[in-house]
Design brief:
Blueprint: E1 8-13, H1 23-35, E2 40-45, E3 59-61, H2 82-99, E4 105-109, H3 116-123, E5 127-132, H4 145-164, E6 169-171, H5 174-184, E7 191-193, H6 208-215, E8 222-227, H7 237-242, E9 250-255, H8 261-270, E10 277-281, H9 288-294, E11 297-300, H10 317-324, E12 329-331, H11 337-340, E13 347-349, H12 354-362, H13 367-378, H14 385-402
Helix pairs in contact: 1-14, 6-9
Length: 406
């Protein structure tokens, strides 16, 4: 009897440091752990300053010793100079030659030059598949100036060239797959849509009163919660502006950090109710469900203007985690969100402008109704990480069977 060899797969995140509480890290580790049921899986980041205890996946570092320039920042190439970036590309190619040739297949997570590493691995004879979750729109909605827009524009042009040469691409959503086809000219048959999963064991309904006691949040407050990165795509600005005219019982609690934190803190000061906005910063991933449990309504305020054609192309992991934890969600009516959030049933769909957020906060249903909507949200079918891993493994087998390494 022939024993089938387990495949060796490495999921590489060239644009990220391993920061346990950050979304890109959690996405990579969750998929890698689930995929480990079917293959021998390792993960690789530019560096790994924050490896979670008990992680069941081997971790590789592309540039050992390099650390994020900002504490808690998971972006590996944000803010580095042109010379530093070129040096990092040399290090990435060296890492591929020395470490990745022993794997059957490499998955490359979305970053500034998505497709670059996959192309180089195929040149080395190793099958590789880019995993795309976002195509930025240079110059639209960027707060970091012309230099950042030019950098993203150049990166997007280079990335497009490499993606067009990829035999297979995984896109997280159907709207994103359409962008790859129409904007980059990639044939539809080369794109496989696979979203993200949710950890139902971790993100499950919990007692709100106990969560508030643990966090020191008043039992009678109406609590809004945002958990995630603070950047331009996840735009809390209009929500903070809306608090100025909101009922005094409403508080906004923000869990996470990012490039826009300073601007949001200043905006809260100008809102007229700075005491109603609480910035908790980054917290350990395992503590996030406690914050969700303490909330009455969870927020995912995406700015569609930062996405191609004004359509949110993210697979929205945070919305799935909010819903799995039994909380209603307020977000925008765009992309896959409209298939997740049922307006008035499991949450609210709001035009992304301060006036619309203000109108929602002024007419927010009683907390007992929000709890009922949360129960509705928890009852919605959501894919697990095992479901997602199964779909990834199908693509891995298809890629290896086709011999697509050229």
């Amino acid at each position: 009897m022939t024993v089938r060899k387990r495949l060796a797969v490495c999921y590489v995140a060239p644009g990220s440091h391993l920061v346990a509480s950050a979304g890109p890290t959690r996405n990579v580790l969750a998929l890698a752990s689930a995929l480990g049921e079917r293959a021998d899986v390792s993960v690789a980041f530019r560096s790994a300053p924050d490896v979670p205890a008990g992680l069941d996946v081997p971790v590789l570092e592309i540039e050992p010793g390099v650390r994020p320039k900002t504490v808690g920042d998971d972006s590996a190439v944000r803010g580095i100079s042109y010379r530093e970036f070129i040096a990092y590309l040399h290090a990435l190619r060296r890492f591929a030659r020395e470490r990745l040739r022993s794997f059957d297949l490499v998955l490359e997570k979305n970053w500034l030059l998505t497709g670059y590493l996959s192309h180089y691995c195929r040149r080395l004879g190793t099958a590789a598949v880019p995993v795309v979750n976002h195509i930025p729109v240079p110059g639209r909605g960027m707060r970091r100036g012309a230099r950042a827009a030019a950098r993203h524009g150049a990166g997007g042009w280079i990335s497009g060239r490499y993606l067009r040469s990829a035999p297979r691409i995984i896109a997280e959503t159907e709207p994103l797959a359409r962008v790859l086809e129409r904007r980059l000219g990639i044939a539809a048959e080369r794109v496989r849509v696979i979203g993200v999963g949710v950890d139902r064991d971790l993100f499950r309904p919990r007692d709100a009163a106990a969560a508030r006691r643990a966090l020191g949040i008043a039992p009678d407050a109406t609590v809004l919660l945002y958990a995630g990165v603070l950047d331009r795509a996840h735009d809390l600005g209009p929500v903070i502006d809306a608090l100025g005219s909101a009922p005094p019982s409403i508080e906004l609690h923000i869990v996470g950090d990012g490039a826009d934190r300073g601007a949001l803190e200043a905006r809260a000061e100008r809102s007229g109710r700075p005491q109603a906005v609480v910035f908790h910063g980054r917290v350990p991933h395992e503590e996030v469900p406690t914050f969700i449990a303490a909330a009455d309504l969870c927020l995912a305020p995406y700015d569609p203007d930062t996405f191609p054609n004004g359509v949110v192309t993210y697979s929205t992991l945070k919305i799935r985690e909010y819903m799995s934890a039994g909380r209603p969600v307020a977000s925008v009516a765009s992309g896959t969100i409209t298939g997740l959030v049922r307006d008035g049933v499991t949450g609210f769909l709001v035009p992304h402008e301060a006036a619309s957020w203000a109108a929602l906060l002024q007419r927010l249903p009683p907390r007992v109704r929000l709890r009922e909507m949360g129960r509705n949200a928890a009852g919605q079918p959501l894919e697990s990480w095992d479901d997602i891993a199964r779909a990834f493994y199908e693509v891995i087998e298809e890629t290896l069977t086709s011999g697509a390494t050229a």
